[in-house]
Amino acid sequence: MTSLTIRIEKIGLKDAGQCIDPYITVSVKGAAIFFEFKHYKPKKRFTSTKCFAFLEMDEIKPGPIVIELYKKPTDFKRKKLQLLTKKPLYLHLHQTLHKE
Q: Taking a C-beta distance cutoff of 8 angstroms, is the pair 11, 91 a contact?
């Protein structure tokens, strides 16, 4: 059996430092691993998803990987994807495979 560890290195957002209580949720849906960047909006009093990225099963291999950021809402079916901006913004990950 093989397990996977993913370390989130950095996220390329120009205004990430201005976000309140930012965090990334990780979920597995179908044949992909999704990463959602969320932050708190005090004026609206709720947590909002700013953007998302995903890793498909064929992209799982040891070492670093850089994946694109997409506009919300999170599209778990990966059908109507829109890049977050025209500038190349990415989520930088490092993958480690553990064989048991």
A: yes
Which class for 60: exposed (0-12), middle (13-18), buried (19 or more C-beta within 10 A)?
middle
Read off φ and ψ for residue 8, nearest 5 degrees: -85, 115
How many alpha carbons lie under 13 Å from residue 88 in its C-beta half-sphere? 3
Taking only the tens place, the pLDDT of each residue in 54-98 is 999 999 999 999 999 999 999 999 999 999 988 888 999 999 999
Tokens representing residue 78 in the block: 């990966």
- Complete DSSP assignment for 40-96: EETTTTEEEEEEEEEEEGGG--SEEEEEE-EESSP-TT--S--BS-SS--EEEEEEE
